[in-house]
Amino acid sequence: MNKIFTLALLVPLLPVAAAAEEDKDTSKPCFRVDRVLHVDKIDDQQVLVKLRGGKEYILGVEARCRGLGNAVQYWIKGATTRACPDRLSRIAYREKSRNIDECRTETITEVTAENQDEVEAQKSSD
Predict the structure, then answer these.
(1) Whole-prediction pTM
(2) Sheet of strand 36-43: strand arrangement
(3) Which end of the chain has less Cβ packing within 10 Å, N or C?
(4) How far is CA 2 from CA 6, 9, 12, in A?
């Protein structure tokens, strides 16, 4: 009887362990939303996200998104605690008119030494 009970307790934990392994997948640039310090616009289709620990990411939104560049406040929303380029993560924003809208995240690019100059040039062009 104890063997059956122990097996019944372990079976529900197997999908959780598999999900934890998927979370370690480094092929997609993902980050934990609770580490976000600041979100700032780059242009109408991109925002720069600064995280605790110094990492930065550029999030690109779907092409039909409008008003992102004129917003006064930004935050990250999603179905999970992580932002990934899976279209489940969203950038929510409040416009000057106080309207709140959101856009699906389509791309996430980590800011590195190689692309830092390009990011700075994009920010200064606005």
Answers:
(1) 0.69
(2) 36-43, 46-51, 56-61, 100-110, 90-95, 71-77
(3) N
(4) 6, 11, 17
Q: CB under 8 Å to 45, separation ≥6 — which residues?
A: 60, 61, 63, 65, 68, 69
- Picking from 44, 72, 61, the residue whose alpha carbon sits closest to that of residue 102 is 61
* Alpha-carbon span 37 to 40, nearest angstrom: 10
Instruction: Give the separation between CA 78 and CA 80, rounded to whole angstroms.
Output: 5
- Residue 46: name the closest of 56, 55, 54 by CA: 56
